[in-house]
Design brief:
Elements lengths: L13 H27 L4 H14 L4 E5 L9 E5 L1 H25 L2 H17 L4 H19 L5 H16 L7 H30 L14 H22 L6 H9 L4 H21 L1
Antiparallel strand pairs: 1-2
Helix pairs in contact: 1-2, 1-3, 2-3, 2-9, 3-4, 3-5, 5-6, 6-7, 7-8
Length: 284
């Protein structure tokens, strides 16, 4: 996961922020208790969003409590946990492990290999419980890797492959809501993949790494083109979200979907504009 699916804190009510943070802290605590520090390091805002969606939809019994941690050693933090928190912790670990293996196979990144080794036994214990999801994650990561090595230029094809991974994560149960959850996860996954590629394009071009935008990013209007594509992806994800009978946490989720997810794009766009302006001034 990439940490793009975040809240817009200034636009969020205090009580909603406290609820959001309590679920985030609950996921952090769950990862620590189940998988130790190495598992806790897989914590992401993206999976917190998954917890809020599924908790709002299914409304499982949720346990409340407080905890202290290294980040907040003096002040106790509110914690909310339920069965979906456990599921999300499992998904977080699976995704991180197989992404590390994929990075090792593609880039021979020894740090990622070392981290995968730390998670290996924990991952193996989860495989029997989530065989279908593991198969989907592994097969789609492998397909992405193959297309990257082949220099695939179809942006929609590449983003859709990652979307399939997120689709499987959102499919918590096979019930009347699963189709909307799958489509929501699919388009949100495409958004995440494209935003990550947009943010990393200069770095990837400089290092010679694959990026689906490598041929387009120097063209005039590139940022607006990417913005338009991202709007289309989010519109589909939001359409599916609005079909779900979610009342609990709905304000928090709308804050994230309609505002928070754009924060990184705007930050990257602003930074690029500032760089171009400085270069323009130097050239005068």
């Amino acid at each position: 996961m990439f940490g793009y699916v975040v809240m817009n804190k200034p636009e969020m009510k205090f009580k909603d922020f406290d609820i959001y943070r309590s679920f985030y802290c609950g996921l952090c605590r769950e990862l620590r208790e189940k998988y130790g520090i190495s598992g806790q390091l897989t914590l992401t805002y993206d999976m917190t969003f998954v917890i809020l969606v599924l908790s709002g939809l299914y409304e499982p019994p949720t346990r409340k409590g407080t905890t202290h941690c290294i980040v907040h050693p003096l002040r106790a933090q509110q914690v909310r946990k339920n069965d979906i928190t456990e599921y999300a912790a499992d998904m977080n670990l699976l995704l991180t492990y197989y992404k590390c293996i994929d990075d090792w196979n593609d880039e021979k990144n020894f740090f990622r290999l070392g981290y995968a080794k730390l998670l290996e036994k924990k991952n193996s214990a989860l495989v029997p419980r989530y065989r279908k999801k593991v198969k989907s994650i592994v097969s789609h990561l492998a397909q992405l890797s193959a297309w990257e090595k082949a220099g695939e230029t179809d942006i929609d094809k590449m983003a859709g492959c990652f979307g399939k991974i997120m689709e499987e994560i959102f499919a918590y149960r096979e019930d009347e809501w699963v189709l909307s959850l799958r489509r929501m996860g699919f388009f949100l996954g495409k958004f995440i993949y494209l935003l990550d590629a947009y943010e990393d394009v200069e770095k990837d071009v400089e290092s010679g790494s694959y990026n689906p935008f490598s041929k387009d990013y120097i063209m005039e209007g590139f940022e607006e083109q990417v913005r338009h594509i991202l709007i289309l992806m989010l519109a589909e994800a939001c359409r599916e979200f609005e079909k779900l009978p979610i009342i609990k946490y709905a304000d928090i989720l709308r804050n994230i979907l309609y505002s928070g997810v754009w924060l990184r794009f705007e930050a990257v766009s602003k930074k690029r504009r500032e760089v171009r302006e400085k270069e323009h001034v130097r050239s005068i």
